[in-house]
């Protein structure tokens, strides 16, 4: 409901901006040639008919830059001062430097339009990455819910109590336990992906955002596999820890393995150290 209200408010703001701008500039645009006026009207029409708000703003900003052709020199100077102040506050790196170089005196319409385009592209990138992060967060929330439901139904119903050999005659693992280990590892991977997404900067490059998105998309699956590897390592005796009756500890380590493999190995080393100390105390009678 809140999402719908925000969308509706943003849409109303876009439509209001287009209407007020058209009312203000319709007479001013009469100073330009017919081709420019036609292009200007078409851009505003496309902004009104755009399927998404970001697309609508893209066309509206294009119409705004085209409308600079109708301004006189004094109006261009005022627009340049406003643009320069906004760029000083909002931009950084090469964009800020380029805008400063383009705004010269006397102000040229072509340079001002290019400077405005650089500023508009900066905001377009920010809005795009913000939307991308929101979609990623929704995706991780969906993954998290699915994994929790899978764990719930597996615990509630489970599979037949069949067991699989793991190398030695006396070593077996139930299918239920393997599935739980995998799901808890996937849960840890999902938590890692969610936290990684929320810590991203909206100012990061779009190509970097997309690349990390595709990589972290498989993180839950990789987390489940990592948890299985750690669990099988326990069963094979790589770590000297007897977890036959420590199901909760196994699942906790599975989450750590899904979140980050280093956490799982560190937890296993700590558990092994504590168990060895307890055994030593028992043997010495202390």
From TrEMBL:
<keyword id="KW-0472">Membrane</keyword>
<keyword id="KW-0812">Transmembrane</keyword>
<feature type="transmembrane region" description="Helical">
    <location>
        <begin position="177"/>
        <end position="198"/>
    </location>
</feature>
<feature type="transmembrane region" description="Helical">
    <location>
        <begin position="210"/>
        <end position="234"/>
    </location>
</feature>
<protein>
    <submittedName>
        <fullName>Uncharacterized protein</fullName>
    </submittedName>
</protein>
<keyword id="KW-1133">Transmembrane helix</keyword>
<feature type="transmembrane region" description="Helical">
    <location>
        <begin position="137"/>
        <end position="157"/>
    </location>
</feature>
